[in-house]
Amino acid sequence: MVALSTQEKEIPFLKQENPLMGSLLEHNRDRLNFYMRLWQEHGNVVGFHFGPFPGVAFFAPEQVRSILVEHGYDFDKGVAIHTIFRAVVGDGIFSSEGEFHRRQRKIMAPPFQPRHIVSYADTMVRYSEQIQRQWQDGEKILINHAMTDLTMSIIGKVLFDADVLKETDELGNAFTMMFSYVGKELTRLIHLPLGWPLPGHAQVRTAARLLQDRLRQMIRERRMRPLDERNDVLSLLLRARYDDGSAMDEDQIIAEALTLFGAGHETTAVALTWAWYLLTQNPERYRKMRQEVDTVLQGRSPTYDDLAQLPYTVQVFKEALRLYPPAYAFTRTALKDVLIDGYRVRKNTVALMAPWVMHRNPEHFPDPERFEPERFGPEREKLIPRYAFLPFGAGPRICLGNHFAMMEGPLLLATLAQRVSFEFVSGQQVIPDPSNTLTLRPRDNVSMIVRRRV
Questions:
Q1: Which residue of 119, 169, 244, 415 is surrounded by the most CB atoms within 10 Å?
Q2: pTM confidence score
Q3: Is 24-452 assigned to CATH 1.10.630.10?
Q4: φ, ψ for residue 206 (rounded to 5)?
């Protein structure tokens, strides 16, 4: 045990943990309440164990800034992410580390800069118009599957120039199976190799091969004609060059494309599902958003330029991200001893940060359980500390698609709100359940009745 210096503060650890499993069982049983209990009972800093492995939860914005920004490369994603994600997807930007991550981030950033993603706005709106035309007045739909199909179709077009890609398609099903496996494995203390003949492993390996083979075919097709003919992200990655003039190899492009697809459709679909649920539970705010959309658009489809005139719709999307952040928690593993707010995080210790908790701090979000998009109005949003609202992370590993998501979410809300209204089917219990996925999905399907608007 290394003695603390006089400037250091001692990390308070949980005193009542399972001697063998630590807090792992409680975490896996109900992780959202576990995170809230840590914060409510112990404050902004508390230590715990997952089996024999120590972790420290940090809940204050300045502490999160220190971990993600100041010490962004003094921590990495940890062995679980490396082992599981790389086995299925490859070493894409989500799991890569150090200098290699910096290099990948630099070459992949241009397609996701605001000046470039504007060109994708029409695709987002076009697919939104298409999906709503399929719904009949009075039809009951599962809004979570509808939003997944919609965002999957959009990201399929944006990334691969593929016109049809849905959750129920062969490729869409393969993506869903692969990322569900990753989500489940991340909750386990011991990770068994994907190559072992265990239940479900063969299906995951088959899904991964299917996706990789399809992407190799897409790459071959693009290389048979000038790459500048297309504007999809896959073509942009094929054209991209490192500082030394070299290009990404085929395996790396496939890993990056799979990573982008998984992150690019799932998080927005989940956020939109919660947004529609919250709107149907708050009819006055639903009416306020519809009125804004009707006034600005007057029956036409929205464009990127309209977003500046749809501030309340943007606020609705942000408030959904606050109450139900798709990335509800994330971890970093210390590569060396690091001081965070005077607390020494030892090498190999896991630092846990939970937007689920931070977004419910009444000091920053008064009446935090209340759905109140107005809190993201221009003046009130200025009062929110910089790292108290954290839907996309921060620092050198901030979500590459954050601008894409903040354009897509409000555009889809506006497009659909103008054409249809949703009614929540009574009797449902909508509970957030992150236990088997990487994101904060509802535990069960969410049924809505579609009402066509005149």
A1: 415
A2: 0.93
A3: yes
A4: -65, -45
